[in-house]
């Protein structure tokens, strides 16, 4: 496994330094400095791939410091953070210092993390290119490498990545969702947990005219109202306890792009009113702000609840439902698309082989038959966990046999599957989800970001589930 990149963070304010380190520490080795003098000493003794520097500091600005760094240590990819506007002086200084990214305050954690990831990737690609040619690549070449990386990411989420056979009910779902890409309307994706609702939402985004802008995700069931509003709409410093600085919300972060609101059925009536206003007016009002801000965002929402039943019961607003469900799409449960299981299992095994550095040669016929007979209360997510466990238990690269199946799997044939989504099924799914979170956290040694990526959750959403399910301290600490 590749070593994490080393990031040097420079900021004279202790609170800002701590906030930046907290965002980056799960994925990177983070070094800190409270002055340019400290930063110079760090650079003299450490190999650093990315420098993240505040602009406004006593004695010397971030841009002035990074100009000096460029002359002495040209390799690290440089990012500057500033609350200043994009004046001509600032832009010229950014160019002279060879700064890769210019991030404005208030920054959003996910946005900042994405930019640092891109910078670390750029450093790696730059050095791979130098190693191959012994000539330092031009800025145009580096930009081409970054563009290629972004195109490759988009390729991961195209409709063709949704595995299904021609006779599968998912074929009709994909055909329907493709039509949604042509029109800028809200989409509501329904279906049980683990059926691939977020994958479908990403395909809709990357197949639409908004593909060049951001796709952001929020799990609406993971946060109390005040924090959810802050996450989505932003906040001003002091708007509530713990709001230590201005914060850009995900709606503003997704301006021009798409926001995916997962578990929308878990939101409270009071929050639903505020979300309805955003959808009606096309503007957000950050907590504590005096004026609203216009945003152009496409909303794709998802739920595992029957929202019309929730409307009838008075738990979900009818007007909000019709705003969200302008284009409804339903993802079928895995047990209702058994024809797809062999192809899905093969795709999952390819990914697991790559991650585990293994070459397991598929599945024994009786294993695929057992897969077809199983109820799959956890859907594709449960299938992935089962295959991952089987590979880990296997001592060879021979096809995986039924002897490697988990005991709980063998005790639950498809005939035992409940007709509806009652409390018993919900309890079983939650137990599976808790086990999956614990297993994933252990495997990633407690690294929240990597575990969240694998589980298809945001960092905030995973933290909320860890608290909700009381995930063991052993799993959290790795």
Automatic annotation (TrEMBL):
Keywords: Activator, ATP-binding, DNA-binding, Nucleotide-binding, Phosphoprotein, Transcription, Transcription regulation, Two-component regulatory system. Residues 163-392 form the Sigma-54 factor interaction domain. Residues 6-120 form the Response regulatory domain. The modification 4-aspartylphosphate is found at residue 54. One of its GO terms (biological process) is regulation of DNA-templated transcription. It comes from the Bacteria. SMART domains: AAA, REC. The keyword Plastid does not apply. GO terms for molecular function: ATP binding; sequence-specific DNA binding. PANTHER family: PTS-DEPENDENT DIHYDROXYACETONE KINASE OPERON REGULATORY PROTEIN-RELATED, TRANSCRIPTIONAL REGULATORY PROTEIN. This is Chemotaxis protein CheY.
């Amino acid at each position: 496994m590749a070593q994490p990149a080393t990031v040097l963070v420079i900021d004279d304010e202790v609170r800002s330094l701590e906030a930046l380190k907290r965002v980056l520490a799960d994925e990177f080795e983070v070094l800190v400095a409270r002055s340019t003098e400290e930063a110079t000493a760090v650079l003299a003794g450490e190999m650093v791939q990315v420098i993240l520097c505040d602009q406004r500091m006593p004695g010397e600005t971030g841009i002035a410091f990074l100009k000096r760094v460029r002359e002495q240590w040209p390799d690290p990819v440089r990012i500057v953070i500033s609350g200043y506007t994009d004046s001509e002086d600032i832009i010229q200084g950014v160019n002279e210092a060879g700064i890769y990214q210019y991030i404005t305050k208030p920054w959003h954690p996910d946005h900042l993390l994405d930019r640092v990831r891109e910078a670390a990737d750029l450093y790696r690609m730059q050095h791979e290119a130098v190693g191959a040619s012994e000539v330092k690549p031009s800025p145009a070449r580096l930009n081409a490498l970054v563009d290629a990386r972004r195109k490759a990411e988009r390729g991961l989420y195209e409709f063709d990545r949704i595995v299904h056979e021609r006779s599968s009910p998912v074929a009709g779902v994909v055909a329907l969702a493709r039509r949604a890409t042509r029109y800028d309307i809200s989409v509501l994706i329904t279906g049980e947990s683990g059926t691939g609702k977020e994958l479908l939402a990403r395909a809709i985004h990357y197949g639409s005219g908004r593909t060049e802008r951001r796709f952001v995700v929020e799990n609406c069931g993971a946060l109390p109202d005040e924090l959810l509003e802050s996450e989505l709409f932003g906040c001003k410093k002091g708007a509530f306890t713990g709001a230590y600085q201005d914060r850009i919300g995900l709606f503003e972060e997704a301006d021009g792009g798409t926001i995916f609101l997962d578990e929308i059925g878990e939101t409270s009536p009071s929050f639903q009113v505020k979300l309805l206003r955003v959808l009606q007016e096309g503007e957000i009002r950050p907590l504590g702000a005096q004026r609203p801000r216009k945003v152009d965002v496409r909303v794709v929402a998802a739920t595992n609840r029957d929202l019309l039943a929730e409307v009838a019961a008075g738990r979900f607003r009818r007007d909000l439902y019709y705003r969200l469900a302008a284009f409804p799409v339903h993802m079928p449960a895995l047990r209702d698309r058994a024809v797809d299981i062999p192809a899905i299992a093969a795709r999952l095994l390819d990914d697991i082989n790559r991650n585990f550095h293994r070459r397991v040669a598929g599945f024994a016929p009786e294993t695929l038959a057992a897969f077809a007979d199983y109820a799959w209360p956890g859907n594709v997510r449960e299938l992935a966990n089962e295959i991952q466990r089987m590979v880990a238990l296997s001592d060879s690269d021979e096809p995986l046999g039924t002897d490697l199946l988990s005991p709980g799997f063998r005790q639950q044939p498809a005939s035992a599957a409940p007709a509806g989504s009652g409390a018993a099924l919900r309890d079983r799914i939650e137990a599976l989800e808790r086990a999956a979170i614990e297993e994933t956290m252990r495997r990633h040694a407690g690294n929240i970001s990597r575990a969240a990526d694998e589980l298809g959750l945001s960092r905030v959403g995973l933290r909320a589930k860890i608290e909700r399910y009381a995930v063991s301290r052993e799993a959290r600490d790795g």
